[in-house]
Amino acid sequence: MTASNPTDAAPPPRVLLSHHLRQLKLPTFLREYEKVAAEAAREGLDHVRFLLRLVELELIDRERRMVERRIRAARFPAVKSFDTFDFTAIPSLNKPLTLELARCEYVVARDNVIALGNSGTGKTHVSLALGLAACQRGFSVAFHTAATLVHQLMEARDEKRLLRLQAQLAAVKLLIVDELGYVPLSQTGAELLFEVFSQRHEHGSTIVTSNLPFEEWTSVFGNQRLTGALLDRLTHHVHILELNGESYRLRQSKARRKRTSQSANEIADPREQDADS
Ligand code: ADP
Ligand code: MG
Questions:
Q1: Which residue out of 121, 248, 250 has the highest number of ligand 1 atoms within 8 Å of its CB and is therefore the one to mutate?
Q2: Number of C-beta neighbours around residue 98 at 10 A
Q3: pTM of the predicted model, to two decimals?
Q4: Which atom of ligand 1 is least distant from the CA of 122?
Q5: pLDDT tens digit sequence for 126-185
Q6: CA distance 212 to 219
Q7: Looking at ligand 1, which residue's alpha carbon is closest to its atom 1?
């Protein structure tokens, strides 16, 4: 009696199924199939509907994982959205245009966005929210401040891997360059940054934020001809967002101080509060 039934030796179907699902990279399918099978039995679903339900779960989960991956790859300093952005705090900002941009059609059209305004008015917040929206809609995004980007470009040049970095920067669908203008650039830095914008021109979208109006960009690039050529490319197909007003942070802290001194007054003389109201 040497020949036993061959099926006795085969791994049980559940083991095989989980092995195959892992190999096919269907983690949600694997995690959910028993639960969905029980549901299907309870609800009297046929096999096709049972499979459909599982496949849909896998698709939803896969999309979520891809969005998360794109967000990680973008290297945002913080994840911010328009849900937490108060448009009433910044009346100079064109709200319909901003929300239109959040739909990301400009990324498909390879247009650029330039956000201009003084410090603390929400330029970084808006660029982060646009970056997040792009990740959610399936576009690859990279976020840099102008200073760190220039630093990385110089470092890559010194280490003879500039071409690779330039190729990476040219390949993302949306490049965000925050805080152009806070630090003047060296001649080499300005040229390297110019090259990035130049290589992206009409190939992908770029968002630039700056505290300086265009007239003053020459002071950052240190060269009128280069600045002219850069503005020419950047503003060829551009949406301009103006954020001019009081710093949001400053306003918040003023409001906080006011609240603190008000409550201190109330403790000192509760009648004053009555007289006020
Ligand atoms: P900027 O880049 O223009 O200097 P930030 O985007 O860094 O300004 O804004 C400063 C802080 O204030 C951030 O924490 C940002 O989230 C917040 N902030 C700015 N404007 C708004 C706004 N309109 N609604 C909500 N938060 C805002
Ligand atoms: Mg900023």
A1: 248
A2: 21
A3: 0.86
A4: 6
A5: 999 999 999 999 999 999 999 999 999 999 999 999 999 999 999 999 999 999 998 889
A6: 9
A7: 120
